[in-house]
Every structure is written in structure tokens, then in C-alpha cells.
Amino acid sequence: LPGHHPPHVAFTSAKATTHPGLKPHRDGTRSVYISDLSGNSVELMDPTSL
């Protein structure tokens, strides 16, 4: 569904802060969604925003 989070796994990563797609969310966290080599959605979360 548009506007909803895709099924995914999430990890905190200090490297998330260097990704150009990093975005703030309603809950105050910041993260970016990427795809792994198998096409799975992976959320990289900025640990300083948790």
C-alpha cells in the first residue's frame, strides 16, 4: 500500500547518517530504506535519533 512501510528488517548503523536518502519520521527517528542483493527491504536507522 502506498505510504506504508514495506515488510523489512531494521538495524541501527552510524553509517546511516552518511546516506543521502536519510529521512526524519513522525516519531523523531531518522532512517533510510535500502534493498539488499536479494531485493529485501532493509531499514538503516540513525542510532542518535532513537
TrEMBL record:
Matches recorded under InterPro entries:
Glyas_Bleomycin-R_OHBP_Dase (IPR029068)
Q: Where is the region Disordered?
A: 1-34
| Superkingdom as given in the UniProt entry | Bacteria
The name this protein carries in UniProt is: Glyoxalase
Q: Organism classification, top ranks? A: Bacteria, Pseudomonadati, Planctomycetota, Planctomycetia, Planctomycetales
